[in-house]
Every structure is written in structure tokens, then in C-alpha cells.
Request: fold
Amino acid sequence: MCVGDRPKITVTTTAIDADHIKICISDNGSGILPEAKAKIFEPFFSTKSIGPGTGLGLAICRQIIHRHDGAIACVSEQNCGTTFDVVLPVQAKHFEGEFVSLA
Reply:
């Protein structure tokens, strides 16, 4: 967390153009180490000890976002927080009875 800051999460939305929106989710935590940042979207990657999580959260988020023709990006500054930017089309895609494999 940035020195002197209280923990904070901020969510903002922006219309990029008539066809796309951007959702930014930011925190002011400790940030993500550069070597971990390169792997955060890989299935089963986690910096936590065994037990607290499976490491699937961001991998699943990315799959869902990509299936909706969107994109996700991460910007992180050590000791000052992380921002995830999600860009999605305004028009929703409909998937009937489809399942996505993470493999």
C-alpha cells in the first residue's frame, strides 16, 4: 500500500466509443511483483501458500472476457497498487449451451 494510505478499491467505467466500454478496477495495495505479473493469467498460478486459493480466478476471468470479444490488462506499481483494465463490447454475445475449457 502506498505510504500513509488506507486500503482502497476503486471501480470506474468509461465509454471508449459507441461500441466498447472500459472497466478499471484499482487498489492501492502492495502491487504485483514483475516476475509474478508475467504469470497471473496462467491457470493454477498463485503466489499464495497451498490452501487459500486455486489460482484459477484470473485465468477464468480472462477466458470469459475473451469469449465476449473483450480484453484484460494489468498495470502494477510495486508498493502502490494494481489496476486491471477490462474492455468489452457494448453488444453482448449470447452463448447457448457452450462450455469453455481452460486447457
